[in-house]
Amino acid sequence: xxxxxACAYRPSRLEFHDFGPDLGDFRQxxxxxxxxxxxxxxxxxxxxxxxSALFEKICKLPEYYPTRTELGILRAIAPHIAERxxxxxxxxxxxxxxxxxxxxxxxxxxxxxxxxxxxxxxDHLRASAEALYAEKSGLSVLAVCADYTxxxxxxxxxxxxxxxxxFPGSTIGNLRPDEAIAFLASWADRLGPGSVMVVGVDLRKxxxxxxxxxxxxxxxxxxxxxxxLVRANRELGADFDPDAFSHxxxxxxxxxxIEIHLESLADQTAHIPGKDGGDVAxxxxxxxxxxxxxSYKYSLEGFKTLxxxxxxxxxxxxxxxxxxxxxxxxxxxxx
Length: 335
Fold this sequence. Notes:
Blueprint: E1 2-7, E2 10-18, H1 23-34, H2 49-58, H3 65-85, E3 90-94, H4 100-108, E4 114-119, H5 122-135, E5 140-145, E6 163-167, H6 177-191, E7 196-202, H7 207-213, H8 220-236, E8 245-252, E9 257-264, E10 268-273, E11 279-284, E12 289-296, H9 300-309, E13 313-319, E14 325-331
Parallel strand pairs: 2-5, 3-4, 3-6, 4-5, 6-7
Antiparallel strand pairs: 1-2, 7-14, 8-9, 9-12, 10-11, 13-14
Helix pairs in contact: 2-8, 3-4
């Protein structure tokens, strides 16, 4: 489905391309992920409308340093990125449900031709795209509702300027290193020769900083994780009791990752209505955990090595003064 809005006096356009998953995808992923001994729910389903709103709250929490730190870096480096890229850039943001970080780069770029936000949260993406289109005269906004880890067709953008992939927020950390290499390699191919990718990467640090960022005192991150169960109840008619689970976030220094689980507080059985009738029973023992999300942290050289393995050439990186976070500038091979 595509919404196309254009005005004769304005060469830009607003489009909405919908390749987002349907309820059947969520149902099957939930049943498949919870039926075995190692229970898990894919983290991409965290971002329905309520989940996206909760994540925006997380980004403003005092414990959650990544957003404000990355924003500070981007404000400082945006002119340097704009100078490197030149005129008429086509920016493709992965995870573009909130255009706050993209706006910093768009404001610095020399007459960008198009902004293509890609996100799985349909309602938030549409609202964000419409707001940005109204604000940025002359900029085409071509929003794509899709899982950006999967194949889908990018819309054709106007002009012939360079392509820039933008992947902020350390979302690359949600993928295992081998998955991250495959993901970046796929986007190197999709962006094409002579393109760049700007990636936000969280750095390794003490657990005393990391764990509170993913388990805050106000309980917003806990509500974000439990929203998977709330969503299953609302959209699928399941009967999970979110209060019967505890949010757990632990940093494993050996692997360099935060591991997030929902832990069952009692022996219980939840039910998910099947697609063709009948319920699928999900028994959970007290202490049994459902894996929700990982967040890998990297050293600067560790991420550069990963990017090279994916076919990119790292040419610049920037960090904050406290070495909490980094932004990397990666180039694809020239034609």
